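Protein in question quoted for reference:
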Amino acid sequence: MNYKSNIFAKLIIICFIIIIVIDYLKFDINISNTNLVLGNSLVPENVVINYIENKDKVNEDIFSSLIGDYKILQLSDDQRLIMIKENKPQFFDETNVYLSSGVKVQYKDYLNFKSLFDKNPIPQYESRSNIDISENILEMINLLNDNRSHLLDKLRLIELSEDNKLSIRFETCEVVVMDNVNTHNKKQILKKIKVLNEFIHRSKESLDKIENIDLRWDDRVFIKTI
């Protein structure tokens, strides 16, 4: 009888130990690092974490393409700080989104590309010309990001027509930048944008009160108010 009691007691102890071990393993498996993410104004936190933990896999979320660089600082055994640098979308055309890093992303390859456009208004570039000025447009966007004039926030459309006239449209104002854009004079685009920035800054005019600005002359700026 004592022998059977000992076996039964040992079985109970073993079962108890097994339950404790399984409980511990489940607890251990379910524990994950608490992630603190900094630097992500556009990329959702879960996309950042998934990008880092599955960096060898093809990521099908368009927001992951905005992650330029990241650093991980382990704060404790179960907490880490993830700091990322985002490449901001600067403008898009019918095929690509152009990022601040100069990288082009073929946005239609991503099923959720509309989410990016909904979350962050991005100026559109339309070209019916055979002159490639995409690099100049990126530089132009950077210039429009002038803290004094805040023009970039209102930029909606950049257009290069069939006859190579370059114009840009803000919320209520159209700016004619240049006529006859070609491979030889396209660097003049940046000079025109500097003139626009300076004009808005010095004149204290609000774009909301201007219907049209003409920058095609070298020595003057024409405006038409609303």
Notes: The CA atoms of residues 114 and 168 lie 23 Å apart. The chain has a mean pLDDT of 84. DSSP finds five helices and twelve strands in the chain. The two ends are 104 Å apart (CA to CA).
